[in-house]
Specification:
Blueprint: E1 2-4, H1 8-19, E2 25-27, E3 41-42, E4 52-53, H2 54-67, E5 71-73, E6 77-81, E7 87-91, E8 95-99, E9 102-104, E10 108-110, E11 126-127, H3 130-133, E12 141-145, H4 149-158, E13 164-169, H5 178-185, E14 190-194, E15 196-204, E16 207-215, E17 221-225, E18 228-231, E19 235-237, E20 268-270, H6 282-301, H7 308-312
Parallel strand pairs: 1-2, 1-9, 2-5, 9-20, 11-18, 12-13, 12-18, 13-14
Antiparallel strand pairs: 3-4, 6-7, 7-8, 10-19, 15-16, 16-17
Helix pairs in contact: 1-2, 1-6, 4-5
Amino acid sequence: MMILGTGPAGLTAAIYAARANLNPVVVEGNEPGGQLTLTTEVENFPGFPDGIMGPELMESMRKQAEKFGATFVRGWVSSVDLSQRPFQVVVDEQTTYVSETLIVSTGASAKMLGIPGESDLLGRGVSTCATCDGFFFRNKPIVVVGGGDSAMEEATFLTKFASEVTIVHRRNELRASKVMQDRARNNPKIKWVLNVTPVSVQSESGKVSGLEVRDNETGETRVIPTEGVFVAIGHQPNTGFLNGQVKLDAVGYIQTIGTTTATSVEGVFACGDVMDSHYRQAITAAGSGCKAAMDVEKFLEGSAFQDWAQLAETLA
């Protein structure tokens, strides 16, 4: 069997599959570990009361999978052929692997602003996850960039920690639903800077000190003082390589059948952020990775998913 991706979902699937003697081959990409490798201290993963660095957590999970017999392959998945089993997986456009089953755990990438200072300060004041990093900004000013529901939700959540939260959006109108807008507007700790374009993330001593913005009407620039910039302009699931062979939702997330990790293609399973647009947490991804490995084991035993085609018809 093969597992594509080595975030918390893929590595947990590898641990469970290896312990079940399924001899998993894991394609880890050129940036192994998923989004947690971009995170500094992780304080909400169970079992680490003093927290743990994101890269350290991912390396420990990888070693655990290796201990039980998982094999790791470095490279990008160029394409897959899911038209028949065994499936074909092409890595780096040159090496083809075959597998009777496939777990897709390639995650979702946060959309970034693409402005100077943003990538350099990721994990040092720039974040894409309020739930993950909000605690580190207790009693500090924070900026949230975005105008959709996720931006309103993150800004509201961050008011639990921050001294104030400033929502920055490029238009005068927000894309968020009215109920989410009202909730944010009625929060006294939230301020608004609208109709501006972020220009750069400013820093002092290697940490975020402000967000430079340009007024869309006057063209004038100014700096909003802040110690944290949370980018909340959406996520993009990493499903392009599937080339439409698996049913996706309107945004591009893989659809799964009922409470299982089974997809529209018999023998293909999905777990983690590539199929979860709602929670996007390391622990929920890990849990779904466990489910995927157990689903694969049952599938190979022939004790589940006998009516796969009928089940797949339940997908939108």
